[in-house]
Write a structure and sequence with these properties.
- By secondary structure, the protein is an alpha+beta fold.
- It has helices at about 1-10, 20-25; strands at about 30-35, 35-45, 50-55, 60-65, 70-75, 80-90, 90-95, 105-110.
- The protein has a single domain, classed as Lipocalin (Beta Barrel), CATH 2.40.128.
- Helix content is about 15%, strand content about 45%.
- It has an eight-stranded antiparallel beta barrel.
- The longest helix has 11 residues, at about 1-10.
- The N and C termini lie far apart (about 55 Å).
Length: about 120
Amino acid sequence: MAALVSATASFAEGGMTAAEFEAYVTGKTLYFGESGRDYGIEEYLENRRVRWSFLDGNCKDGFWYEEGGLICFVYEDRPDPQCWTFIKDTNGLRAIFDGDPQQTTLYEARQNDEPMLCYGPEVGV
C-alpha cells in the first residue's frame, strides 16, 4: 500500500515516466546540486546503464529501472535500489529521494555530453 501511495504521489507531482526520463538523460552527463552545493555527477549511457561519482574521481557503475512510478538505481557497491521521483521543469531536473523523511531533493546544476573522468581504485605503496 505504501508503494502505491508513493507512486501515486510521484505522478501527482508530475514525476517523469521511464520513457520520458530515458529520452531526457541518455547520452548526457548531469551535474547535481543540493542546497546550493555540488552533490555529484552521473553519466547516462545506453541500455539504462549509469556511472555515478560524488565528484571525487571515484566512479560507481550501475543501472536504472522504473518501478511503481519511481526511477530506481542499483550500483556495483550497493545492491539495494535507490529510488527517486524525477520532475522536469524549466530549470532542468529535480530528483526527490523516495522514503526519505528529510525529503532529500537534488537539482540539475548543469549538463554536457562529455564522459566523466574516473581515476579508478585507490592505490597505495
